[in-house]
Specification:
The complex is a heterodimer of chains A (about 300) and B (about 280). The longest helix of chain A has about 30 residues. Chain A is an all-alpha fold and about 300 residues long. Chain A contains 13 helices and no strands. Chain B has about 280 residues and is mostly helical. The chains are: A mainly alpha (about 300), B mainly alpha (about 280). Chains A and B meet through helix 2, helix 4, helix 5, helix 6 and helix 7 of A and helix 1, helix 4, helix 5, helix 6 and helix 7 of B.
Chain lengths: ~300, ~280
């Protein structure tokens, strides 16, 4: 009898027990496939190892990987490329995303269709987006070069993937096309949660369309935009497939971000220890940056 | 809302122009797929082929292992979505309904797991899978994709459960349902649209993966997923752009169809909480 009572989850005092039981599978799985691997990474980054076996005796503790990292010009170059890409892609995605959202937030016939069309790139897998843009940026018969020549902006076909500056823009444009619909979807959700009463009241007070945008839409959209901004930045920081498939981080490492450097050190050169150090530094930058930004965003909410 | 004809014209003009610009790359993929190789190697490019080669789709489907790649992607997605959904439905419900010690920090941890770069996690996962002789097997993707999916689904589902009134379960329990029964028989059926939208979203996450598939499966062509297979169609010197484009259409279509269903929920789901 008492056994049955012990597991009687309906009793208020047993409510917590049920909560723990429901959480247990998630804790186990997350522990197994996220926390444990993460601990291994950090441990690997503190050993001078190439391609270690798990269970083999641990190599001696060393900070050599980090020392080598901060002394290497390749690492600082990767930081610079990542920063440039974050700034360009975030700015491009925010501007395109917010303006398309404002546009389709108007009431008009065919609005549903317009919304579907404008957010469609969200649904195109990154590798497929790269297939599309790799052809548009083809150096012999690509559309983009032809267009630039036609517009008089270029003298001849541009060797996109073998010219450092051009390769950066090819990556950035592909990422903006793929990334702006997320901003658009989030902004649209934010816009729809603004009560129309606010606008009506402002109209009664004689506010024009720009004043309404500046003093109602923008402030009320800020919390959503803040979170969206952080998510887009994190996406650019960690993206692998677009850069890897489009340029492989080249030419001359001009599109090699920290993510690409981590991967190539691990699976190109089999420097697991060194690669883990690059990855851990990337993670620390991501966490610190988003804490700083979300901290600012919470203050902006009040 | 009343507009002057001029305002309407400006609105429609802008919408159509922007939509055309955004959709152009997708249109270009289709045009490339049905162009002949000769037409693709000439300038100026033709914006609609003189002689549309719809047969390229059939050719690619038969000559390349596209059905196998799609099947592998499907299996990896179904496996990882099933595993992640079971775990995150339970966790999302617990986070929504119980104030458990440590529950909040666990929730926060799951949230920060979104920040983990896949390029960092892939290193230890590779070592672990190699230890168990799993490299080359689709099971690696079931586990690895779950690391991408669980942080999203747990929080999406917590959000959906928060919108379902607690009175529903309380009424069921007064009528003699156990707490577990109240969840399974009362809350889950009500949350079905949310569960469906979340599963589809998770499916998209798994389908889009390239990093894990490339790392674990690159030497096992029988296990290649669609994304991985497609990248192997790019030659070092020359690429048959019409064939790779046709293959890309096959890979993109399932996700675009899902998106057409999901779009309503993406916007609707996010706003539901805000309006309450």
């Amino acid at each position: 009898m008492s056994r049955v009572r012990l597991f009687d989850l309906a009793r208020p005092s047993r409510q917590h027990l049920m909560g723990y039981i429901l959480l247990a599978p998630a804790v186990l799985l997350v522990g197994l496939i996220i926390v444990y691997p993460l601990i291994i990474s950090i441990d690997l980054s503190l050993q001078a190892v190439k391609l270690p076996r798990i269970g083999a005796p641990r190599a001696p503790f060393t900070t050599a990987n980090y020392e080598r990292l901060f002394a290497s010009s390749e690492f600082w170059m990767a930081c610079w490329v990542t920063l440039k890409l974050v700034v360009v892609v975030t700015a491009g995605s925010l501007i395109t995303g917010v303006s398309t959202a404002l546009l389709v937030n108007n009431r008009f016939r065919g609005r549903t269709l317009a919304r579907l069309a404008m957010a469609l790139p969200w649904a195109v897998p990154e590798v497929i987006a790269v297939v599309i843009f790799a052809w548009i940026f083809d150096s012999s018969f690509g559309l983009m070069s032809w267009l630039l020549v036609k517009l008089g902006l270029s003298n001849g076909m541009v060797a996109w993937v073998s010219t450092p500056g051009a390769a950066f823009w090819a990556v950035a444009i592909t990422m903006i096309w793929k990334g702006f619909p997320f901003v658009s979807i989030m902004t649209l959700a934010g816009l729809q949660s603004i009560p129309t009463d606010f606008y009506n009241a402002a109209k009664v007070d004689g506010a024009n369309v720009f004043q309404r945008f500046r003093w109602i839409t923008l402030p009320l959209l800020m919390p959503v935009l803040g979170v969206t901004l952080v998510l887009v930045i994190l996406w650019v920081f960690r993206d692998f497939s677009i850069i890897k498939v489009l340029t492989e981080g080249g030419p001359l490492k001009s599109t090699q971000t920290l993510s690409i450097m981590t991967y190539d050190q691990a699976f190109g050169f089999f420097n697991f220890g060194y690669a883990s150090a690059v990855g851990v530094v990337t993670l620390v930058i991501c966490v610190v940056a988003s804490l700083l930004m979300l901290g600012r965003q919470t203050r902006a909410m009040y | 809302m009343n507009r002057t004809p001029l305002q309407s014209l400006a609105l429609y003009g802008t919408v159509i122009l922007l939509a055309a610009l955004i959709l152009f790359p997708v249109y270009w993929l289709l045009v490339t797929a049905i162009s002949t190789s000769a037409e693709l190697s000439q300038l100026p490019p033709s914006f609609w082929p003189d002689d549309a080669q719809w047969s390229t789709f059939a050719k690619v489907w038969e000559e390349r292992p596209i059905p196998l790649w799609l099947l592998n992607s499907m299996l990896a997605a179904i496996g990882s979505v099933a595993l992640s959904m079971v775990v995150s439905v339970l966790a999302g419900y617990a986070l929504s309904r119980f104030s458990i010690r440590g529950g909040h920090s666990l929730g926060l941890f799951i949230l920060t797991a979104k920040m983990l770069p896949a390029t960092l996690l892939v290193i230890p996962l590779f070592s672990i899978f190699r230890n168990f002789g799993m490299i080359g097997s689709l099971w690696t993707l079931v586990l690895a994709h779950s690391t991408l999916i669980i942080p999203f689904t747990t929080w999406m589902l917590k959000g959906y459960f928060d919108t379902i009134p607690r009175e529903l379960e309380q009424a069921a329990m007064v009528d003699g349902c156990s707490p577990m029964g109240a969840m399974v028989r009362v809350v889950l059926p009500v949350a079905t649209p949310g569960l469906a939208a979340t599963s589809l979203y998770a499916f998209v996450l798994s389908w889009a993966d390239y990093a894990y598939a490339r790392t674990f499966l690159v030497n096992a062509p029988g296990s290649w997923t669609a994304n991985l297979g497609i990248t192997t169609m790019r030659g070092e010197y020359t690429t048959d752009w019409n064939e790779i484009s046709a293959a890309a259409v096959f890979v993109a279509v399932p996700i675009i169809v899902i998106y057409l269903f999901l779009e309503r929920y993406l916007v609707g789901g996010l706003t539901a909480g805000a309006e309450k």
